[in-house]
What we know:
Layout (H helix, E strand, L loop, with lengths): L1 E3 L5 H17 L3 H4 L6 H9 L3 E6 L2 E11 L2 E9 L8 H15 L5 E6 L6 H6 L3 E2 L7 H12 L7 E5 L1
The protein binds coenzyme A.
Coenzyme A binds next to helix 1, strand 4 and helix 4.
Amino acid sequence: MIRLARASDLPLLGELERAAGEPFRDLGMVAVADDEPFSMAQLRPYQADGRCWVVDVSGVVAGYLLADVVDGNGHVEQVSVLPAFARRGLGRRLIETAASWAVSRGLPALTLTTFRDMPWNAPYYARLGFRELAESSWGPSLRAIREHEAALGLDRWPRLAMIR
Ligand SMILES: CC(C)(COP(=O)(O)OP(=O)(O)OC[C@H]1O[C@@H](n2cnc3c(N)ncnc32)[C@H](O)[C@@H]1OP(=O)(O)O)[C@@H](O)C(=O)NCCC(=O)NCCS
């Protein structure tokens, strides 16, 4: 079941994000696996504003998604699913929830940034209907997100912006 996150879910999300990032370590992408999860202070506004959803599988919080408004579009800031629950379509359902939220807010599109080459990143989002958004079409806030990611060292592996 997908539902809006409750305040009591928030302490679980850091560990969830760390666990979801572990497959990157297996690929040698240690900086990605070790990237700091969102803090409670960062998560609280998403939860308070109805922009944080969790997948609840029989009481286990198995995944979550954070949505933002970036340059007038909905934006998937973060999506994570526990490896033990991966490849059951939970990620897709979270993305579809963000898409419905964007529609309900009158936002014309959904964007995200991701790794080009990981099978559960850009190729996966392409199957969900996203296409690459060329740098020339980035708005100022999307550009700032990409610059921040580069500053964190994430651009050692090719990243891109996508839109649906
Ligand atoms: C991206 C993520 C949220 C997807 O969650 P999910 O619940 O597994 O998503 P779905 O079940 O809808 O689909 C997963 C698809 O990703 C691909 N995939 C996932 N793991 C894979 C792996 N180890 N090898 C190859 N493909 C993989 C497959 O195409 C899979 O679809 P399939 O099972 O039908 O073949 C999850 O993999 C995750 O948390 N990853 C780590 C964090 C991350 O990368 N976040 C996004 C950063 S932009």
